[in-house]
Amino acid sequence: MVGGLDIQYLWIAENYRKKNIGKKLMQIAEDEAIKRKCHMAYVDTFDFQAVNFYKKLGYEEYGHLSQFAHRHTRYYLSKQLGS
Fold it and tell me: What is the mean pLDDT of residues 65-75?
């Protein structure tokens, strides 16, 4: 297998959150990545954004930067695909 799914932007409007739309979009993206022979997906996010969202989807933290911009923690997460 080659390549990886690089998730750069995923944003759901406030009135559409908690309706599984983000989860469905991620599943569509991961399914397409598997079709394209990607073996992993990876994303970075901040403590005030969606770190728990990605963890619920099976992403695991492989690193973080504390005090990013002197205020936040930036998390780096990945997930194996097609296993």
Answer: 89
